[in-house]
Amino acid sequence: MTSVEVVVRVVIRIIIISVWVAGAAACRERHQADVHAVEVSMVAQGTTWHATYLIQKPQGPITEVPTGREVHVPLGAEVTLALSSRDYISDFSLPGLGLRDFAAPGLPSEFRFRAERPGRFTLRGDELCGRPRDEHARGWLVVEDPASFRAWLDRRARAGLG
After folding, report:
1. Cβ(130)–Cβ(47) under 8 Å?
2. C-alpha to C-alpha distances, 34 to 8, 27, 132, 136, 158, nearest whole angstrom
3. Counting C-beta atoms within 10 Å of the first and last residue's C-beta, which end of the chain has fewer, N or C?
4. Where are the beta strands (DSSP E) in the chain?
5. Which domains does the chain have, with CATH numbers?
6. Of 84, 67, 77, which Cα lies nearest the Cα of 38?
7. pLDDT digit string (tens) for 10-53?
8. DSSP bridge partners of 103
């Protein structure tokens, strides 16, 4: 990759981040009322990663709902997986959906896709230095009917754990 390509990629990511930050509050409210759109934060740290949903109840504060390395989305939803890393360059991939990108400290990324087929898909978040660590890097993306998604997320929110 040439230095010009690197600069262009960094500039594009800065623009994407700026737009995302500007619309985050409105998107969070819309996502809570409408399961046709779901946004999940995926953060890599060390040799593992974890996912968190931001849930806003009507007239209430935004609550973080951690879900470990398991991500559920409703069938038919527009999905955004916001990728970031706290300490290493991390490679995120969803091989069953043909998605792969990286995130580095200060350089987040995202996957956007429509959840069009139900199933359980391998979701990986590997650090790009050192040996692969399957037990810490592998997680799951579960695409399910909207009622099952809401029930799963409600259980996680009540339990307060991932």
Report:
1. yes
2. 34, 10, 37, 32, 20
3. N
4. 37-45, 48-56, 62-68, 70-74, 78-85, 90-94, 99-103, 109-114, 119-127, 138-144
5. 3-159 (2.60.40.420)
6. 77
7. 767 777 776 555 654 444 444 444 478 899 999 988 778 899 99
8. 90
* pTM for this predicted structure: 0.71
Q: What is the pLDDT confidence band of residue 130, given thresholds at 50, 70 and 90? A: low
Six-digit token string for 135:
């037990």
β 138-144/119-127 pair status: antiparallel
How many CA atoms are closer than 13 Å to the CA of 88, on its beta-carbon side? 15
Contacts of range 47-54, beta carbons closer than 8 Å, 24 or more positions apart: 47/127, 47/130, 47/133, 47/136, 47/137, 48/125, 48/133, 48/136, 48/137, 49/90, 49/92, 49/125, 49/137, 49/139, 50/162, 51/139, 51/162, 52/162, 53/153, 53/156, 54/28
